[in-house]
Every structure is written in C-alpha cells, then in structure tokens.
Amino acid sequence: MDVTLLGTGGPSGLPRPSCPCSSCAVALGVDARAATALLVDGALMLDLTPGVAFAAARAGHSLGGVRQVLLSHPHDGPAVEVPAGLPQPGRVPDGRELALLTGHRVRAVAMDAPGTGYAVTGPDGQRLLYLPPGGAPAGLEENGKDVYDMVLADVVGRPDALARLRAVGAVGPTTDVVAVHLDHDVPPGGELRRRLAAAGARAVPDGTTLAVGAYEDVPDVPRRTLVLGGARSGKSVEAERRLEAFPDVLYVATGGTRNGDGEWAARVSAHRERRPGSWRTAETCDLVPLLADEGPPLLIDCLSLWLTDAMDAVGAWDDAEWAGGGERALRKRVRELTDAVRATRRTVVAVSNEVGSGIVPATASGRRYRDELGRLNAAFAAECEQVLLVVAGQALVLRG
User: Fold this and answer.
1) Which of 61, 104, 184, 271 is the catalytic position?
2) What is the pLDDT of residues 275-323, one digit of tens each?
3) pTM value?
4) Using an 8 Å Cβ cutoff, are 337 and 271 in contact?
5) Which phi and psi (to 5°) does residue 199 adopt?
6) Number of CB atoms found within 10 A of residue 99's CB
7) Is residue 75 flagged as an active site residue?
8) What is the signed CA dihedral for 128, 112, 280, 345, rounded to 10 degrees?
9) Across-strand partners of 253?
C-alpha cells in the first residue's frame, strides 16, 4: 500500500496567508506545505483541499482512479471545489467500516475533538492510521496484536495522541510515525526535525510517496539526555516536551515541598499543570535506585537541586567539614550518580542549571556551589547521548 502526501500542512497551509510570524516567514521551498491531503493507492483520498488535482499532478499521479473521498475534520472558509470526476466527499460514522471494491477497508476512529480518524487496511494487510488536526483517539483499548505500520498524525499539536497509541500497543518500535497538519507552532527546518526526532517521528515534503510497511531509518529517541539552561530559559519546558509523546513517564522532582514558601509552591503548581495527566510524580533526591530499576522514562528536574541536597548532607557549606571529608563524600555521591546513569536501561531526561557564565558569586559557599555544579553537569553530560543548551527558549544541540 502506497500513500502520497499531497499536502502535509495545517488546514490553512504553511505559511499561513498574510501571517507575519517568523515561522511563516521562513517556510519557503520544501518547508512550504499545503493543507494535508492523502492519496492511498490512487483509489482513496483522505481530505480534499484546494489545488489537490494540481498537487497530484506534480507528484506524478492522476485522480482518475479515486473511488472514495473521505473528510477527517470540518473545513473552515468557502467550500472546496470538487475536481471533475471525483466522487462527492463524505465522512464515515465513528466505529463503522467501509469496504472499497479495490480491497481497501476503512474504519472510522472516534476522536476526543471534532473530526474523524481513519484506520485503513490495504489489500495485502498493511495498516495505516490517519488522524485529523488537533485530535487524539478516544476510548482506546489495549490490543498488542493491532500494531499500525504507519501513523500520520498531528505530532506537534497533539503529542499525547501518540502517547495514547503507544500505551495500548498500537504504535510500536517498527511503526513509521509521520507528522502531518504541520502549522507555524514550530519553526520549519532543523528545529522541526529535532522536535519530531525526540518523539520518534519524522516529516516529509509535500508530494512524497511512502510505502506502508517499508522500514524507514527514523532517528532513535536518545535514551539519556541532559538539558541545560539558565533561569527561565525554557529548559524544563524543553525537557517535558521531549517525553510528552510517551506514556507513563515518572517525573522526579528533587526540590521538595519547601513548606511555607508561597513562591516555590506556585512554581511547583505551574509545572504540574502543564504536565500530561498520565505522568506520575516522585519527590525525592534518591536517584540511584530509580536509575537502577526497570520502568518507564524518567524526567529528573533538576540536578542543581539534587546537588544542593547532596552538599547539605556532606556539610559542604562549612569550610572545616568540607576540608575534613565533605569534599570526598560529595565526589563519591556524584560518582555513584553518574555510574548509575551509565548503567541504566531506562530512558532519562535530566534538567540542570547552567550557572558558570554569570557573575562570580560573592561568597565562598556560592563559588563552591557554582564549581561543583559545573563539575556535576560535565560528568553527567559525559554519560548522555544528547546534551542540549536552552537559551531564550531556543534549544542548541551540544551533543548528539
């Protein structure tokens, strides 16, 4: 079963008409995208968009063999003209199955937002799932036998849809996840590719034909990642974004509750509000046992607070205790942590502050903390496949 992507953009296309944003300004050439529409084996069209006949011609296809046109979501604006020879578009009621004379079977999948998803089974048994923009499947049940060969979805806008599919076994390691409905939320080019690779997905230019079930060399999701950044740089948001397409993440908060500190409580609440509801939280600085255990991905936020706790425990703030064994004890704790990171089989994303580029602290204890955090970050980064530095909300890849 072949799928030709006549368009891969959001409903308004990319760039959006008359939009002055920076993402639209650079969406040129191969990064320009028409509204998403799919042609399956030349016989089935999913979503009808303006200029689809010209798009098919540019991709080397004719629409003469199309026997069914299905819409996945409400279309805003004026009605789209149906090219001559195409059947009138329609939608399949949720849960119903449509059989085509070509041997394709199409089942309508219920969404949690306006729209309909379509699970298409080809004559030879290959399976693809196409989801509408802004939608995620509703009421999924675990069924490890039904793994899709390809999923085409709004990965940027609804990464939780991918997490839901992974949770029930509908998306596995061999599933080719292709991002469609791409809008101006993420700058095109390298930043888009990086975001999608972190979710185990990819994007292709308009007009690309894909073979469903064929192996694609999609970049592996890094198993260990360190995200560095200054205060309010966006490092925590970047770290959370890297795992939001995966279910059952364990969020490890190393800062504690700090009873009575209203500002800290507000920060903790803001973090919780933006995390997916399926994630669990553990408030602990005892990271070594968590890294040694089997289990879902860990998001550790953050190493700088872990270091504060470790330095408290060894008396690092007192010069005499530091010289009398505190420094050796801290080195041992850091070595145990980095050894655990090296040995872990879990996916790990850790956050840490980058404090060495600012003003030199006025106190000896402040300088000690700055130096030890620099050493910790360097040691932890050495055990990670990918290291990022977030500056002004922009992620710079330092490694990987």
Assistant:
1) 271
2) 677 899 999 999 999 999 999 999 999 999 999 999 999 999 999 999 9
3) 0.88
4) no
5) -95, 0
6) 10
7) no
8) 10
9) 283, 301
